[in-house]
Amino acid sequence: MYYPVARPRRLRSSANMRRLVRENHLRVDDLIYPIFVTGGRDVQKPVKSMPGVYNLSIDRLLAEVSLVQDLGIPGILLFGIPDNKDAVGSGAYAANGIIQQAVRAIKDKFPELLVITDVCLCEYTDHGHCGIVHEGKVLNDPTLELLARTAVSHAQSGADIVAPSDMMDGRVKAIREALDERGFANIPIMSYSVKYASAFYGPFREAAGSAPQFGDRKTYQMDPPNIREALREAEQDIAEGADMIIVKPAMAYMDVIAAVRRNFDGPLAAYNVSGEYSMIKAAASLGWIDERQTTLELLTGLKRAGANIIITYHAPDVAHWLNEDI
User: Fold this and answer.
1) The pTM is what?
2) For residues 274 and 321, is the Cβ–Cβ distance under 8 A?
3) Which CATH superfamily is domain 25-325 in?
4) Would the annotation count 7 as a binding residue?
5) 173 included as an active-site residue
6) Where are the domains of the chain?
7) End-to-end distance of the chain based on CA atoms, in angstroms?
8) Closest to 227 in 3D by CA, of 261, 199, 201, 204
9) Residue 57 is assigned to a ligand binding site
10) Among the options 85, 173, 195, 281, which is catalytic?
11) In 92-164, which ranges are continuous DSSP H helix?
């Protein structure tokens, strides 16, 4: 049927009509909010390249978490910034490390909130790489034991979900086995299965102080032109025991999100990363774009591509906007 019998504009005639026939919906339930936690008291250090984002001491973190819970956001993703770093990232798996302290404090006051912990070494190593380094090379297999120790220490502290982001081969299997052996068989793994060596991570590295001190991460993070490799990575992580998988970054990788969704049925998260966040904030501050409309359009696009979980620094703002529209 063609014009004038078929008139698509009939279904766009009012806000309620558009709501009635809308195919994809962005919800507060879809959101995970990443937060940076550091030592000290009463610390709220702005991240210059990420307006509205801070490094928070645990007391300030609890106030932020209270806001998150009030907004109805189901969970947070924690990144730790230790007081001291060393070659083997020992702060990542220390019993009283910054993440371990933060998780215990959050679960004590907000037991129902989902606490997801990033499992990696880059924030804790003095060289800034995600694994053990020997003679200028990042070693895969020796790193697995430390990642597994980190995941177990997070679970022992009360984490609900552990999220390995290091991109070492075999780390999901190593973490799954370690968790199971220590009585944490019910702790899910949300794996950064598809993580590209991207230019969009710059602001995060400022926030976490995790820039590599030499070289780059291209020998373990994925090459941006590749998409079939993404499917192999996702398949391997699922086979090793990943319960949820992440594609990171999001904006330039919607085709990858869509391809992963077509091939796998499980929960799929898109990580709307720091550089993507900062670009919107910068353009909005100059009056070049409408921040609310642009952000909601972008995140809805991630849903349309196939993600059912969205990790984003925009989460509190988005939750405010969506709650206003109810």
Assistant:
1) 0.96
2) no
3) Aldolase class I (3.20.20.70)
4) no
5) no
6) 25-325
7) 36
8) 261
9) no
10) 195
11) 98-109, 141-157
